[in-house]
Amino acid sequence: TYLGQRWGEKTPEDFVRYVRTDLMGIVREDLVYDVARHVDSSVHLFEEWGLPIWKTDEGKYVREGPWQIMINGESYKPIVAEAAKTAIGAENLYERVIVTHLFSDPDDPGRIAGAVGFSVRENKFYVFHAKSVIVTCGGATLLFRPRSVGEGLGRTWYAIFDTGSTFAMMAQVGAEMTQMENRFIPSRFKDGYGPVGAWFLLLKSTATNAYGENYMVTQADELKKYEPYGSAKPTPTPLRNHLMLTDILAGKGPIYMRTDEALARLSGG
């Protein structure tokens, strides 16, 4: 996500409205706003650290859609990791350690004072003492078994190692959990090892059922049941998923992302 505030493109308020519509009103607007007001500066840091970002002849970032920009993302995580190492010092890093539990301060139960975990490479158990703790283990992915097989099972996106540790560890120590009633679950396609935004937004690909029907067109009447969100543009993610699942339940699966048609249009074929 990139707002482009320095070019007068989008504002945090615009982003809050977009997210509120996409999640059909089940949203903490204050949290969304807090993310939005910092996201541009984060992107600028990524570029400073060496992340390749596509640019126009005018020097602006190339957008794949209203909110996203195009990057060469294969080096994304190593770049972020290197910045972290530089910030805190490699001697302060403990890698390949699975943290299993957080512990609160006995004198102040509202404060986390440490954590425990074990090495996945050595016969070692770690006890960490801390003044404060930040948990950034990612979300909970692979809630549904992917249809990819063999080696492809480990290449699905999101990553297989996002196992919900963030939620579990925080809940165990009594942290306030919020937005748990809304799980953002975007559709993913077999053999698609990354986000599909560039295909759908930049290259204008579509998704069809096994009969070649675009369910966003053939199931359009179904959206009328969910106004005002049914007529929103873009169609909220839960409703796009709903139409896709409706076709699958009707025996019209599997669903295909028509990359062939998108590439043909791109090449003028």
Structure overview:
- By secondary structure, this protein is an alpha+beta fold.
- The protein folds into four domains: 1-87, no CATH class; 94-134, no CATH class; 139-181, no CATH class; 196-269, Alpha-Beta Complex (Flavocytochrome C3, Chain A, domain 1), CATH 3.90.700.
- Helix content is 33%, strand content 11%.
- The chain has a three-stranded antiparallel beta sheet with strand order 1-2-3, covered by helices on one side. A two-stranded antiparallel ribbon has the order 4-5.
- The relative contact order is 0.10.
- The mean pLDDT is 90.
Give the helix proportion (percent range). 25-40%
Termini separation comes to: 32 Å
Q: State the secondary-structure class.
A: alpha+beta
Number of distinct beta strands: 5
Mean model confidence by pLDDT: 90
Strand count, sense and closure of the main sheet?
3 strands, antiparallel
Strand share of the residues? Answer: 5-15%
Number of domains: 4
Number of helices: 9
What is the global morphology?
Answer: globular
Reading the helices and strands in chain order gives: HHHEEEHHEHHHEH
The gyration radius over C-alpha positions equals 22 Å
Order of strands in the sheet with most strands: 1-2-3
Low-confidence stretches: none
